[in-house]
Amino acid sequence: MLTLEFPVNALILLAISAISMLIGFSYGRAQVLKIRKKLLKTETEMINSHAEILEMQKEYINMEIRLRAVKDPVIVMASTNEAAVKEKMPDGSLRKKMLAKDFSPGSKESHSRIYDNRLNKKIG
Fold it and tell me: How many CA atoms lie within 13 A of 26 on its CB side?
């Protein structure tokens, strides 16, 4: 039977284990620093958002104080002139006349001719 002998030097074994420990610790430290950086960024975002919320609450309280100081918050609107309102309203009688008419085409008239007649007719 063949036996293979590997000479193991204790100093080389110690050196390899020390180097591997240093590599492992540096890798772990890099991960911890990365996590701390993310945590610090998240904390600053939270602090900024809380500061904005507090600022908005302060503005809201100031607005409430100003509203309570107002004696009569109701604003009176100026009365409108009824003649001006009537001028702006469309004439309803014209609509009633248009709905009452029969727009079906006759025997000699096509739909396009009725449509053209309606477009060219002046509403007065």
Answer: 6
Please give the chain's pLDDT, 124 residues, in tens: 678 787 888 899 999 999 999 999 999 999 999 999 999 999 999 999 999 999 999 999 999 988 888 776 666 666 666 655 556 666 667 666 666 665 555 555 555 555 555 555 555 4
- Residue 82 amino acid letter: E
Q: What is the dihedral of CA 22, 24, 27, 32, to 10 degrees?
A: -100
Q: Is the pTM of this model over 0.70?
A: no
Q: What angle do CA 17, 20, 26 make, to 5 degrees?
A: 140
Helix (H, G, I), strand (E, B) or coil at 108: coil
